[in-house]
Amino acid sequence: MENIALIESFSEFKDDKLIDRVTLMSILEDVFRNALKKKYGEDDNFDIIVNPDKGDLEIWRNRVVVADGEVEDSNQEISLSEARRIEPDFEVGEDVSEEVKLKDLGRRAILALRQNLISKIHEHDNTNIYKQFKELEGEIYNAEVHHIRHRAIILLDDEGNEIVLPKDRQIPSDFFRKGENVRGVIESVELKGNKPTIIMSRTAPGFLEKLFEQEIPEVFDGLITIKKVVRVPGEKAKVAVDSYDDRIDPVGACVGMKGSRIHSIVRELGNENIDVINYTNNDQLFITRALSPAKITSIKLDEENKRAEVILRPEEVSKAIGRGGHNIRLAGQLTGFEIDVFREGVEEDVELSEFTDEIEDWVIKEFSKIGLDTAKSVLEQDLEDLVRRTDLEEETIRQVFQVLRDEFEE
């Protein structure tokens, strides 16, 4: 009965960890075999009989009877006199099966058994958690803020699973308090050692896509398809949508009357400005829509190199570029084209890249970040506005202005 009593005491883990009894018994057998190897050097001659219905486990050691004084391996062989103490009619050469009691393993071994069992069950538990969350990658998940760290927020779900929301996966305006519920997508799940690491993201384009599925019935039902999502988290996003049903206006259905349907999504994303755009296979039309709210005069496409030259009236240029260059950059990501903006009526302009002998590359890149790639596009800007929008000193910008003006005066 002592084996049964010990197994029953181990069975508490079954209830705590939701492990079925058969799995628990399999883990137990593995743990006991490890204990036998440590004590006897090997376990090949041991039979472990598990009865999951009764919660019982028996260990039997099989040895060969040899003459007294001829025992060379005490684990594999037993002397005749010792065998006859078990049963008086044993003879040399016969096999003896003897039950091993847990007390025979020793107190330390039993303590080690318990520790090993805990470790194996945690390993099994972690494997199940890994599989569970691996299937949830890309899906929206809710969890509660448990601990706030400098580089990440630690979340716990209803089952007590730990989920990490790193700082760089948070929207810049995010601010969470302990106990608050947080939504995001499960971005990745990895096993580090035996412990699963679950990463949540609120900045992934997939989070916005899944919010559309949750909040807009036509998207959830498949009547509207999201073709592509691009984002600058917390600032601006563009979502291309399509419908195979001509009776449905995909943009209108997603936005709703006065933005009523998309409002909850915008609020969830820290007032991220979301442009919903009708998808089309017509590249010129798609680029025109992607650069909204700017109104385009004409477009010249280089399909082979995926470049587009867009002509706009001067007052439309800033709209096309957008604050911080977000609009033109996202339009390029959405359409797959590198978009160059030119002002209508301006016949002569020079790419900033032509001035690398006089202007340092890093300075040119600062202008490019906000969508200014040509000499005249820079010269049309206000000095103070450029100081605010770039990381350049006022004196540096003045020097650039002078270099560019000299070009056109020659």
From TrEMBL:
It is found in: Cytoplasm. It comes from the Bacteria. Transmembrane segments: none annotated. SMART domains: KH. Keywords: Cytoplasm, RNA-binding, Transcription, Transcription antitermination, Transcription regulation, Transcription termination. CDD domains: KH-II_NusA_rpt1 (cd02134), KH-II_NusA_rpt2 (cd22529). Residues 233-306, 307-384 form the K Homology domain. The keyword Transcription applies. InterPro entries: KH_dom (IPR004087), KH_dom-like_a/b (IPR015946), KH_NusA_2nd (IPR058582), KH_sf_prok-type (IPR009019), NA-bd_OB-fold (IPR012340), NusA_N_sf (IPR036555), TF_NusA (IPR010213), TF_NusA_bacterial (IPR030842). The keyword Cell cycle does not apply. PROSITE patterns: KH_TYPE_1. It holds the Pfam family NusA_N. NCBIfam families: NusA. Belongs to the NusA family. Monomer. Binds directly to the core enzyme of the DNA-dependent RNA polymerase and to nascent RNA. Participates in both transcription termination and antitermination. This is Transcription termination/antitermination protein NusA. It comes from Autumnicola lenta. The gene is nusA.
